[in-house]
Design brief:
Mannose-Binding Protein A, Chain A, alpha+beta, about 375 residues, about 30% strand, seven-stranded mixed beta sheet
Length: about 375
C-alpha cells in the first residue's frame, strides 16, 4: 500500500475543522447548587469547570441569557482547606519547589495572609488587601516573553487585573521568575506582589484548575466566601464575572460535556488507536495551549507514567502528523524529547510539566480518546 493511502487510513474524522474537546450547555431550570450538580452528572459530565478566559468566553456564548447561573466551584472553608495556586492558568504550584522565607507562610498574628510578596527572590504571605508594587509577565511564546515591574501600588486582586488587561498575568511559577532574573529585569526590590494566592475553592469534577474570575470582592471573601455563601455563580450580564451565593438558592446553571476520555488500560499505540476508533472517535489531538491544559488534567489520573496521544512520525514522508488530520502547529515537546525516528509516536508524561516524548510504538501506555 502506498504511504499516502496508509496515512489516509490513519487519519480520523475531524479533517478540515476543529473538534471541540468539551462543550458547555446552559440549563434554564431553577435548581439549588446540589440539584444542578446531580442534573449535570446524570445528563452531561458535571457542573461547568472553567480553566481560562477562552473557556469563559465559550460559557458566555453558550447562552443569550442575562441570568446569574451556577458553575461547578464550591468553597470548603477552614485553614486546612486552603491551597496555594499560581494566577496564570496552566502553571501548577509544587509544594516541594518553593522559595519561602524561613517561617513563612505563617498567617502572622492570626490574620489571613493569602497572597504572596517577593523580596530579593524570597516569598512571604501577606493580606491580599495591602498595596504594593508588582510584577507582570508577558507572552507564552519563548521568543516574546518579557517581565514588567509596575511601580504603582495596588492590592493583589487589582494587580492581577492590571496584568491581565495590559500584559498576560501576574508573574507565575519558578520558570518565569528565573527567566525574568536571567533577562536582567530588576527584581531586587522589596515587597512586590507575585501571582501566588491560596483559597478554599474546589471544582465539582475534581479538576485542579486555578483560574478565577471574581468580581471585585474583599480578600477574605475570595478565600472562603461570605459565611454560608459557598457556591459560585457566573453573572452573565456582567461579562460573566463570578460571584457566590447560598447553595440552597435556586438558579439556572451551566453543565459541560467532556469528550476527553482517559482509558486506564495499557496498549501499544496502534492498539490504542483502534480502541479509540471502535469505542469513541479517535486518539486525541492537541492543537493549542487550551487543549493541552484540558488533556493534561485528565492525564494526571493515568496508571502509567505516560499516555499515548494521536501524534505519529512518518519515516518515509519525514514528518509528524495528527491522526485527526489537524496541523501540527502547537507542540509541547520536552527538551530533546523527540527526533525523527521510525516507528515512533508521541506520549504525554502524566506528571511534571506534562511534556511530550517520542516513544516506540510497541511500548504500552494508557491513552486518551475523544
Amino acid at each position: 500500500m502506498q504511504w499516502s493511502l496508509i496515512l489516509l487510513s490513519l487519519m480520523g474524522q475531524c479533517s478540515f475543522f476543529t473538534c471541540q474537546l468539551y462543550d458547555y450547555r446552559f440549563i434554564k431550570e431553577n435548581k439549588t447548587w446540589d440539584e444542578a450538580q446531580k442534573h449535570c452528572r446524570k445528563n452531561y459530565t458535571d457542573l461547568a469547570t472553567v480553566s481560562n478566559m477562552t473557556d469563559m468566553k465559550r460559557v458566555i456564548n453558550s447562552t443569550e441569557s442575562q441570568d446569574e447561573a451556577w458553575i461547578g466551584l464550591h468553597s470548603y472553608p477552614g485553614n486546612g482547606s486552603r491551597k496555594w495556586h499560581w494566577s496564570l492558568p496552566g502553571v501548577e504550584f509544587n509544594e516541594s519547589e518553593t522559595r519561602w522565607e524561613s517561617g513563612e507562610p505563617n498567617d502572622y498574628n492570626g490574620h489571613l495572609e493569602n497572597c504572596a510578596l517577593m523580596t530579593n527572590k524570597n516569598w512571604s504571605d501577606f493580606p491580599c488587601t495591602a498595596s504594593f508594587k508588582f510584577i507582570c509577565y508577558n507572552g507564552t511564546n519563548q521568543s516574546k516573553k518579557t517581565c514588567h515591574v509596575i511601580s504603582d501600588k495596588l492590592s493583589w486582586s487589582q494587580a492581577q487585573n492590571y496584568c491581565r488587561v495590559n500584559h498576560t498575568d501576574l508573574i507565575s511559577g519558578l520558570d518565569q521568575l528565573d527567566h525574568c532574573a536571567e533577562s536582567g529585569s530588576d527584581m531586587s526590590g522589596t515587597n512586590m506582589w507575585i501571582g501566588l494566592f491560596r483559597d478554599t475553592w474546589r471544582w465539582s469534577d475534581g479538576s485542579s484548575f486555578s483560574f478565577r474570575y471574581w468580581e471585585s470582592l474583599s480578600a477574605n471573601d475570595l478565600v472562603e466566601g461570605q459565611g454560608d455563601k459557598k457556591c459560585a455563580t457566573t453573572v452573565l450580564n456582567r461579562a460573566g464575572k463570578w460571584n457566590f451565593d447560598y447553595c440552597n438558592n435556586t438558579k439556572p446553571f451551566i453543565c459541560y460535556s467532556d469528550k476527553v476520555i482517559l482509558v486506564n488500560e495499557s496498549k501499544t499505540w496502534v492498539e490504542a488507536l483502534n480502541y479509540c476508533r471502535k469505542n469513541h472517535q479517535d486518539l486525541v489531538s492537541i492543537t493549542n495551549l487550551d487543549e493541552q491544559r484540558w488533556v493534561q488534567e485528565r492525564a494526571k489520573n493515568a496508571s502509567s507514567l505516560y499516555v499515548w496521544l494521536g501524534l505519529r512520525y512518518s519515516c518515509t514522508l519525514d514528518f509528524w502528523f495528527w491522526v485527526t488530520d489537524n496541523r501540527v502547529k502547537y507542540t509541547n515537546w520536552a527538551p530533546k524529547g523527540h527526533s525523527n525516528d521510525c516507528d515512533m509516536s508521541a506520549a504525554m508524561e502524566k506528571a511534571g510539566q506534562n511534556q511530550w516524548f517520542k516513544k516506540p510504538d510497541n511500548e504500552k501506555f494508557n491513552f486518551i480518546c475523544f
